[in-house]
Amino acid sequence: MTRTAGRRRADSPRPPEYDLPTREPRIESPRTARVLMFVVLLGWIVGTVAAGTSVVAVDVPVDTPFDVERFGAGLLLMVFSVGLTHRVGGHMRIWGSLALILSVAAVVTEANVLLAAAAACSAVLASVWAIVITRPALTVVQAIREYVLAIVVALSGTVAVAAWNAPVDYQRFNLVVLTVALGLAITVVWNLGAGLHGLGRQNLAILAGVAALVVLVLAYSSFVRSHGSPMITELISNSVIWMRQTFGGVPRPVEVFIGFPALLVGVSMRSRNREGWWILVFAVIGTGVLSTSLVSPGAFPSYIGLSTLYSSVLGLVVGLIVRSIAVRDRSSRAARAVEAERRIEPPRLAALK
After folding, report:
1. For the segment 140-156, what is each residue's pLDDT rounded down to a tens digit?
2. pTM for the full model?
3. Distances (CA, A) of 247 to 22, 156, 218
4. How far is 199 from 242, CA to CA, in rounded Å?
5. Where are the domains of the chain?
């Protein structure tokens, strides 16, 4: 029996499956699970509005028996902990209980150490949760949607940190938050991205290039601040002052050239292989810087808001350019292969592990 020649079909004979094992849901009733997810979403909205009173002046007609701002910050800390733990398949009883104890202790005692710890935990959990709550994006529109969602989640962490109003040193607080957030993100991504052995040559080159860019930007900015010539430092200072007086805000280079473009490219690469999670590690730098931008009592919310807006727009433009280079469409010859082009992941509110 002779076999007739012909082109192979481009579609797979069976639908693609998620390439990581996931635990069985601890709540068997779908209705109960939806109710709990609705409660978490409602808590996130209520907590963001309550914590936002620390940034936006709101006239309260009656006196409340508790501090609305820190109550909202404590509620957000619980939401961040529950959302992140559920998403990465962690132990809810352990991490949820610890977050609850820290929130209640910080609100009730108002001790400086507990307020600083609660603010740091809020910033770390919000910056990492903003990354893992995203889904793979196959098209540009989907990538922009995930980009906006991650920034909105990180902004809720920003108002939570502002609502705690912890007496901390701004630079040390930023350094601690970024270090812990990167460590947590690497731990999570190590499981979701199958370690480093699964990276291909192209993905490894992209990862190494982004890492080199991070080191270059951070090292150069630190060198300019400490050892730069007076002419260069004065030029940078005058440029910042001019932009602040003219536009009301100054875009942050770390977010524009590293954090936000990595967010856009990472969610796009995840649509084809799970090693795209490694690019999202660098996106935590952007969400981490954003979540700590209002920790200083002297920071003006309008200035931070405009700076975030400019950074988001410019980061989106840079990210789309990098995405067009790093995430290319397959050739017509490769498109005829019998394999699924799009990688499947669980729903947004389901566990990834």
Report:
1. 999 999 999 999 999 99
2. 0.85
3. 48, 24, 25
4. 44
5. 30-335
